Task: structure prediction
Amino acid sequence: MPRATRSLPARRPAALGSADARIAPALPPAFDAFRALHSGCYLGYAQLHLPADEAVDAVAHTLGYLLTHWPHVVSQPSPTTYAWQQLVAFTASRHHPLPLNTSSPQQYDTVVLHHGLGYPLKAVADSTGVHPVKAAYLARSWRPSK
Result:
């Protein structure tokens, strides 16, 4: 006895620009917000330490790393501090710092962002994970070399 077969309706290929053709994994909303908030600051910092194309690559690699490891990042006591450390590693800014007389890596980063790039201290604290009061102290206690 022949089996009944169901025929599937013919399916047309998705038109360019249709929803089917644009399926891409969505970024976690928290990561997307994090990227939007910090990418400008990250790029400015990277551009002071690297040639322009390498700076863009360093920021892209940093953000890619953070996205790939996002559950680990957000499980850290300070995800922002952890993320900033990744940027510092990808820019190698500790190995080739700008000629600044600073007392600590945190002061160096604060001075670069606040005095060098003009970011408000709140933005410096938000991007590096340093407490705002400490960022203010680090920026105000720095004395340029003569």
The CA atoms of residues 12 and 18 lie 12 Å apart. Residues 4-21 have pLDDT under 50 and may be disordered. The two ends are 98 Å apart (CA to CA).
